[in-house]
Write a structure and sequence with these properties.
It is a single chain. The chain has 209 residues and is α/β, with parallel strands linked by helices. It has two domains: 12-33 and 72-208, Glycosidases (TIM Barrel), CATH 3.20.20.80; 35-68, no CATH class. The chain is 28% helix and 20% strand. The chain contains six helices and twelve strands. It has helices spanning 2-5, 14-19, 83-95, 119-122, 125-143, 186-198; strands spanning 27-30, 36-39, 58-61, 63-64, 67-68, 71-72, 79-80, 101-105, 148-153, 173-175, 182-184, 205-208. The strands form five sheets. A four-stranded parallel β-sheet has the order 1-8-9-12, with no helix packed on it. A two-stranded antiparallel sheet has the order 2-3. Strands 4-5 form a two-stranded antiparallel ribbon. The longest helix has 19 residues, at 125-143. The two termini are 34 Å apart. InterPro entries: GH, Glyco_hydro_1, Glyco_hydro_1_AS. Pfam families: Glyco_hydro_1. The active site is at residue 105.
Length: 209
Amino acid sequence: MHEILGPDLLVFSKYDKEKFKNGLDFIGINHYTSYYVKDCIFSACDQGKGSSKTEGFALTSAQMNDKSIGEPTALAWFYVHPQGMENIVTYIKDRYNNIPMFITENGFGTSESSYPTTEYELNDVKRVEYLSSYLDSLATAIRKGADVKGYFVWSILDNFEWNHGYSIRFGLHHVDFATLNRTPRGSAFWYKNFISEHKNLAGISYAQV
C-alpha cells in the first residue's frame, strides 16, 4: 500500500497505534450495489477515472462478457446484486477476525414522481424485493458465522441525495417536499412486519436511518 499510494496513505501516530492496540469496537458497512473489478496495475486495462487515486488503479464495470451484474435501477451506478451483501460481510469477517459488524446503510432509490397520486406509486414493490433479497443474503452470512449486530435501512424518509438532490428517493416514507407531508410506502409496512417477525433472529437489531 505504501508503494502504491505513497504520501496519500494515512500515517498513524504513536498515540493512534496505542489507541487501536486493543482492536476496533465494530466495523460499519454501507452497502448498496456491486461491480466487477479489474486490476489495472498488473493487468492490461484502462485505469478507471475514480474520485481518488486508489480508485484510479482499478477498472470497475457492471458488465462482463455483455452480461450485467444485476438489474439496473434509477441510478446509473446502482445494480441489484443481493449476493454482494453476503460477499462483503464474509470478506470482512475473514479479513478482520470477525470483529462485530453493523450494516449502517442499505437501501433502494427510485425516481418516482414528487407527488404520487396513485396507490401504485406508493406500493414500492421493487424496494421490497430489494430489501428482502439483501436481508436474505445477510442472513446467509450470519448463519455462516458473521458477527453482525445490527442493520439500518436507508432511509426512513426521502431526503437530499448528494449527487441527485431531491430527484432520487430512498425513503420507506414518501415526503412531499412542498408541504413536508409524510406518507408510508408499502415498504414501510413490509419492514415493520419483517422486524416483528425476525426481531430475535441471531441477536441482530434492525432500525431505520
